[in-house]
Structure prediction request, 422 residues.
Amino acid sequence: MAQIFHRSTNFIARFSLFAAILAAGLAGLVIYATPRSPYKTNQNVVREQPIQFSHKHHVGDDGIDCRYCHTGVETSAFAGIPPTKTCMNCHSVLFKDAAYLEPVRESYRSGKPLQWSRVHRLPDFVYFNHSIHVNKGVGCSSCHGPVNQMALMWQSSTLLMSWCLDCHRNPGQVLREKKDVVNMDWKAPANQAEIGRALAAQYKIRTTAELTSCSTCHR
Amino acid sequence: MSSALRNCAIFAAAVLLPLAGGCRQDMADQPKNNPLTPSAFFSDGRGSRTPEENTVERGALAEDELAVPKDSTFFPLPITQALLERGRERYGIFCAPCHGAEGDGNGMIAVRGMKHPPSYQQERLRQAPVGYFFDVITHGFGAMYDYSAQVNAHDRWAIIAYIRALQLSRNAPAGMLSPETLRKLKAGPESAPAEHTPEGGAH
Prediction:
């Protein structure tokens, strides 16, 4: 009797076994990596804005403190985006005829707010609060990266739950003196572990169990 | 549908289901009002509301208690080291960009082309009552816009106390200094006490 399958099908059979395992692995990788990729998290994606507002110029070159514009950051959950009036504090005189500032002046005249395009966005089922972080010595740059070098704003962290937890498990690694909270050039000193422990005690940072409890962030 | 096909479909669904974890769901986008996000509910499209006319915000009355008339020389808070430190910090954030860390009117923004503010060291401003400073911060002055939205009343007083300290730092009578500081001052600029130079402005 003639063979039904040609000899070469042996190879196809073995190959397809192998390919199936490979495909499953690949699918697993895609499933694992997609939610963590910049495509989903928007990490490092520079966001276009209606006005070319540059943190590099205002913070890096001119030395304006974050809190001059983001006034809520020490006292409330929301850091706040400055109203048009804040821009006009300076730009009523500085570059008062520049065309690129016309939308700002128009907004000030008409009272219609500027519509910035949002960069950071946590899902609504997460509770986040700026004031507790800032008042316990977690600096802006630990979460927002080198803002003083950003010509246009981008999100420098993933904002994934694992990112929050990595810090909540061991906040000592980032804690600094309160006066350094807005300091963009702060680098962890060599003895950060020691300093972090002392500061954690001083700020009365709670236990890892409390900080990683689901109801801390999902309430 | 043959059972093989159905099994295939179930298998495919089981493989694809975890992918749905990457989708956004309603919990992530709840129909609630987040600060500064647009809202279709109000005709002007603003989610964050400005106070209605003739209404008083909660907490605003406490602010009023610290307000004084323009010519008042009364300082409504106890002047403590903590208040001065607070004033130094707030001054660095809100005033130093234009007025400079030492109050000479040469802050970074003035250097970049903002109108130069007057120096706090001039006689007129050294004699001005504290109420005048409160008024300038609250209502603005000439080219300077008001800071009432950015600086609350308590912090305004902290800043005023610090401005007074800045003015004094250039005009203190020798008798006020401790013998130690006086000795260092006389010894020359190299060993001048560092604690008298106010910290550099905001970063």
Notes: Residues 66 and 182 of chain A are 7 Å apart (CA to CA). The mean pLDDT of chain A is 91. Chain A has twelve helices and no strands. Residues 8-33 of chain A form the longest helix (26 residues).
